[in-house]
Amino acid sequence: MTQTPRLAFLASPIEEAGKALEALSAMHGQHAPEDADVLCALGGDGFMLQTLHKYAGLEKPVYGMKLGTVGFLMNQYRETGLLERIAAAEPAALRPLEMVAQAESGASVNLLAYNEVALLRQTRQAAHIRIELNGHTRLDELICDGVLVATAAGSTAYNYSAHGPILPLGAGVVALTPIAPFRPRRWRGAILRADTEVVFRVLDPYKRPVSATADSHEVRNVVEVRLREARDRQVALLFDPEHNLEERILSEQFMA
User: Fold this and answer.
1) N or C: where does the chain have the smaller number of CB atoms within 10 Å of the terminal CB?
2) What is the pLDDT of residue 70?
3) What is the pTM (predicted TM-score) of this model?
4) In a 3-state reduction of DSSP, which class is residue 61?
């Protein structure tokens, strides 16, 4: 940027983030997100996801600083040198998953997910789910606690905890990962092209109800979930060069 960027500071509800908001606003001024050049999110990964869901339509780059418990999508917090850090930051382009969930009531809900879309059983009964890819049935019946589709940015989170693969940023793929699968016992998921249309059909939804979540947004009692990478939506996250998102994702694969 050739001129001093206009910054919009956004803070999570925790006390440390509030104090940082006051200090940084005093140093750099405060602009409305609609008028800013860069959005600065102060908090943890959960707050970063909230920021993306709320403001991604503005198509403004987002520079996050960690003031929460988990900060995989954030830079380290420092009050000094912020403008220089933003000027030197490297962008990581993220495309969300677009989910259309059909509920038992007949309602249709459209949501975006920057980390993952997950289907989860709502009761003690295991979920029975059919999986279709691009109109073809690939798995007649998955008996499980749930199943998820994760982006590369989200592949180190819930997906990795469910023993799914970590995906390189920019590879154009997503992870399809079962959660505690019972049958087929040896099926461990798949890596799919990001433009694959994935359809989950819930079998016996009355006896075995299932919910669907797109990041932190939940739809209860779904009967069908259809998703694929959003083609017309993209957001840029800014990272300090020495610890950019691509390097973080790579490093995660070598952690003991």
Assistant:
1) C
2) 73
3) 0.89
4) coil
Per-residue exposure over 138-169, b if at least 16 CB sit within 10 Å of its own CB, e if not: ebeebbbebbbbbbbbbbbbbbbebebbbbeb
pLDDT at position 69: 76
Find the catalytic residue in 35, 37, 45, 232. 45
Smallest Cα–Cα separation from 29: which of 65, 71, 87, 83? 83
Is 140 known to be catalytic?
A: no
pLDDT of residue 169: 87
CATH of domain 97-229: 2.60.200.30
Spatial contact of 215 and 185, defined as CB atoms under 8 Å apart: no
Closest CA to 210 of 132, 109, 112, 103: 103
Mean pLDDT of each 10-residue bin along the chain, 256 residues long: 85 95 96 97 94 94 89 91 96 95 96 97 97 98 98 93 92 96 93 97 96 96 97 91 84 77
SS3 161: helix
Sequence spans of domains, the chain = 7-94+234-252, 97-229
Contact 199, 131 (CB under 8 A): yes
Assigned fold of 7-94+234-252? Rossmann fold (3.40.50)
Contact (Cβ atoms closer than 8 angstroms) between residue 102 and residue 67: no
